[in-house]
Amino acid sequence: MNRLPARAILADDERLMRDQLKLALQQVWPELSIEEQARNGQEALEAVKQWRPEVVFLDIRMPGMNGIETARAILDWADEQDSVAPEIVFITAYDQYAVEAFEHGAVDYVLKPAEPERLSKTVARICQRLQQQGTGKPLLEPAPLLSQVLQQLTRQMTPQSRAPLRWIQASMGQSIQMVPVEEVLFFSSDDKYTRVRTAEQEHFIRKPIKELLDELDPAEFWQIHRSTLVNVRAIETARRDDRGRLVLSLRGCSETLVVSRNHSAQFKGM
Predict the structure, then answer these.
(1) Do both 176 and 76 map to the same domain?
(2) pTM of the model
(3) Could you tell me which of 269, 185, 263 has the C-alpha nearest to residue 224?
(4) 230: domain range?
(5) Looking at the structure, do residues 22 and 152 belong to the same domain, yes or no?
(6) What pLDDT is attached to residue 100?
(7) Is residue 23 part of a domain?
(8) 24 Cβ partners below 8 Å, 6+ apart?
(9) 160-170: average pLDDT
(10) Are 89 and 179 found together in one domain?
């Protein structure tokens, strides 16, 4: 397959690793233009906002905001802009659990140091996805189920990871109400509060979506927007509206939820 022209951001806190990957990429993908090299996650996020690249290479372990947190921030920013997020490729030292997560179909990765043969396979997959999306688009469809893989990787990389959250503590006047997680239809956040909607009532808590993502079971709750998590078992139908947006109807609830384009891949079978 022909290597398509594309723009990329490369983020790694080790300069030697950045230089080595850049050289390897020049060999296997000479049409790729590396617009900027970032030393940490925050620099990578700012570079993505400036350049709007088709591909971002992220070291999975960086000081401050690591690669997983940076990938989430990129997805959130793309949702805010109503744009489609770039392809994410993680750069990682060998980690058995992380590599298993990558191999299960949602995201590409490059092992340190980058070997041309393995890197060539990653580049081929990326170019295939770019070709499928066509040319002329500033941002491209992400690998499917990326948000779930980010949840899985966060759990695997967190020492002594806790069991998934089973109860939500919601304030009711002077008392605390314990809401079983399985009764929650969806969580929706604004700048200050997170709305907890059940079939019977709604509550407001101060725990942000970012924290809930790391505490809930990713098999039970899917992120459908930067500010919304939905209980998979509560989904009744998924349909396209007149604007082409994917809209979810929930059992026991008259409200509908809109899925952002960066999280729509998980509904391909619905």
Answers:
(1) no
(2) 0.77
(3) 263
(4) 167-267
(5) yes
(6) 65
(7) yes
(8) 114, 115, 116, 119
(9) 81
(10) no
Residue 162 lies in a domain: no
Same domain membership, residue 30 and residue 84: yes
Paired residues of 167 in beta bridges: 180
> CA of 124: how far to CAs of 19, 121, 166, in Å?
21, 5, 42
The Cα 48–Cα 45 span in angstroms is: 5
Sheet holding 32-38, edge to edge: 32-38, 6-11, 55-59, 87-92, 108-111
Q: Let me know if residue 121 belongs to a domain.
A: yes
Give residue 35's identity as a one-letter amino acid code.
E
Strand-strand pairing, 32-38 and 194-198: unpaired
Tell me: cis bond preceding 144? Omega within 30 of 0 counts: no
**Each residue of 127-162: pLDDT tens digit?**
988 887 654 444 434 444 677 777 777 766 665 556
Q: Quick one: 133 and 206 in the same domain?
A: no
**Is residue 1 included in any domain, yes or no?**
no
CATH number at residue 22: 3.40.50.2300
Amino acid at position 249, single letter: S
Tokens in use for 156? Answer: 């695997």
Number of domains in the chain: 2
